[in-house]
Structure to design on (609 residues):
């Protein structure tokens, strides 16, 4: 009830204190085309753009109603820079729509003759008005109408204190007769804004705070925390110089996110996307540095390959959800997964040191191929066995037939109705060395090759993919072999050309892999994950957040009929994998060098019967 009464009171007092004319309002978007045409026709300056002006604080006198409503001290001034003109986004200052439209036209004419660099606000404005009226005498009649309407909206000098009254009278004289006043009498408060005049560049909008420099390096793309809203509210930027830069960080900042998860406090609303933007909307002034934009993190993407060197994107990317355990719901379309095809290929031949093992596993897995044969003399079956039918007909004609005729046959044998998708962790940690012999990625590469040799021998349908990530905005999903692609030289070249990526955002990769294998028609679907560590990324994904999202992705896979199984070489996997995959759905390979030989055997055990 209190909120309802407060809302009604706010609307009532705001309407009473508002001196504008909303019903006669004119929006900039409705007249911008005319204004651009006017400026280019009169000044010849095709680069002079028109932009909305931000609300700016003026230390002026308020009426009693305005004090109650909190109005009267913020206005959108008109000003210009070297390449832009800033005017209010909506004009409802004057009592008719025609006057408000003429006010837009007057501002544009005035900006053409106004100086970019100001010496004195009072005298420079009078000079600009005088020059504008001389340059465009046809606008004189409209200007007189605008002056009369604007003076009617200004405070009555007789109602002001003596000092402010003297300043207001002098300002009215300067508005009516440009060039007649050189200085204003001093007053405690500033005079009310003059809607017919321009102001210096003290109210630059945040997006244009470095308008004249236009440094491409300072441009930033909006992220998920950027306030989109209606796009109609603008702020005034207060410029400041940065102080001395010092201080050395001796720890990884992202570890704070995982430490905070272990404290016994309810922080389900931490890192909310809406809080920062809501606070910014309540501020009248946003302080910016003149030397650079504020950064919310270190720029860790300097080592990213160029488009010519990076893998080939397959499509525009796929939006995927992510589970936020703190809030208990999914963050819709939070991750962008980018399917990729390897650009840099390796050798198309099987490495020399794997050829003997490849021959061995091929012989072993050839025995897994189902043997099909005809089973005859059945009471029911797929086809009629003509020989059995002739035997039965002969026996019946001789009076020897007994019971139901067994004249059918069926093509029987054990079928391997399964599909397997292997998902390999290609994060930066796989570039670590295992002794002096090879890296983790070398072991994963050999494992994928031997696994492919084995399954191509058993003729089980399988697919191979690799993944890594760099925050939620880029989850790389590399296609090594699709289900409908035969294993051969092209697949071996992709595997041999594998390179380490970035980080390990498992949840998104598992979700997309689940979608791919769920489309297969087989009864049994195995998702085999090969990794060397726990889920982690540059943001809050390290720690419990990443573990909970991965666990939820595993649960989703099981709900869709997929069997997830994790194979790891991380010696500490027993601390977290039972929680993520279950105690019976992971395997720890103590000696990483044994992974290539163990993986085919593990697959045979998982798919037996």
């Amino acid at each position: 009830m209190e909120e309802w009464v407060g809302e009604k009171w706010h609307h009532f007092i705001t309407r009473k204190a508002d001196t504008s004319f909303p019903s006669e309002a004119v929006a900039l978007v409705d007249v911008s085309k005319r204004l651009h045409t006017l400026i280019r026709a009169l000044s010849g300056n095709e680069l002079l753009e028109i932009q909305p002006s931000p609300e700016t604080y003026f230390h002026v006198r308020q009426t009693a109603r305005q004090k109650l409503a909190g109005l009267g001290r913020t206005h959108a001034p008109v000003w210009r820079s070297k390449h832009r003109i800033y005017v209010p986004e909506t004009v409802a200052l004057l009592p008719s729509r025609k006057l408000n439209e003429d006010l837009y036209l007057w501002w544009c004419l005035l900006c053409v003759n106004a100086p970019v660099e100001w010496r004195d606000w009072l005298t420079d404005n009078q000079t600009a008005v005088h020059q504008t009226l001389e340059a465009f005498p046809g606008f004189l009649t409209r200007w007189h109408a605008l002056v009369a309407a604007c003076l009617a909206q200004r405070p009555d000098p007789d109602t002001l204190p003596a000092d402010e009254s003297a300043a207001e009278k002098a300002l009215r004289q300067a508005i009516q007769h440009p060039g007649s006043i050189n200085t204003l009498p001093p007053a405690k408060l500033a005079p009310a804004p003059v809607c017919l005049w321009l102001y210096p560049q003290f109210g630059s909008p945040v997006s244009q705070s470095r308008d004249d420099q236009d440094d491409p390096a300072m441009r930033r793309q909006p992220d998920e925390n950027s306030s989109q809203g209606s796009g109609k509210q603008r702020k005034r930027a207060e410029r400041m110089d940065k102080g001395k830069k010092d201080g050395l960080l001796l720890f990884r900042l992202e570890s704070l996110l995982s430490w905070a998860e272990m404290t016994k406090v309810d922080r389900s609303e931490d890192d909310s996307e809406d809080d920062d933007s809501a606070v910014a909307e309540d501020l009248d002034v946003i302080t910016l540095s003149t030397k650079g934009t504020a950064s919310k993190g270190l720029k860790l993407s300097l080592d990213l390959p160029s488009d010519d060197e990076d893998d080939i994107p397959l499509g525009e990317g796929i939006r995927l959800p992510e589970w936020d355990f703190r809030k208990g719901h999914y963050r819709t379309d939070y991750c962008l997964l980018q399917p990729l095809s390897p650009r840099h290929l390796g050798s198309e031949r099987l490495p020399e040191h794997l050829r003997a093992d490849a021959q061995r596993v091929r012989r072993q897995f050839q025995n897994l191929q189902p043997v099909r044969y005809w089973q005859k003399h059945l009471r029911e079956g797929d086809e009629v066995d003509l020989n059995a039918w002739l035997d039965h007909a002969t026996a019946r004609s001789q009076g020897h037939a007994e019971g139901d005729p067994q004249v059918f046959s069926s093509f029987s044998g054990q079928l391997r109705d399964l599909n397997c998708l292997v998902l390999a962790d290609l994060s930066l940690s796989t570039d670590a060395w295992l002794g002096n012999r090879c890296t983790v990625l070398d072991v994963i590469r050999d494992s994928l090759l031997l696994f492919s040799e084995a399954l191509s021998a058993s003729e089980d349908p399988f697919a191979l993919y690799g993944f890594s990530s760099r925050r939620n905005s880029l989850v790389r999903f590399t296609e090594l072999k699709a289900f409908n692609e035969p294993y051969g030289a092209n697949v071996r070249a992709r595997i041999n050309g594998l390179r380490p990526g970035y980080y390990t955002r498992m949840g998104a990769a598992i979700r997309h892999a689940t979608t791919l294998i769920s489309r297969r028609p087989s009864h049994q679907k195995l998702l085999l994950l090969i990794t060397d560590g726990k889920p982690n990324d540059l943001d809050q994904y390290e720690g419990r957040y990443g573990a909970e999202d991965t666990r939820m992705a595993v649960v989703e896979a099981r709900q869709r009929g997929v069997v997830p199984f994790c194979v790891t070489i991380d010696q500490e996997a027993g601390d977290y994998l039972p929680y993520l995959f279950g105690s019976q759905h992971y395997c720890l390979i103590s000696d990483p060098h044994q992974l290539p030989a163990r993986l085919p055997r593990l697959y045979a055990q998982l798919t037996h019967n």
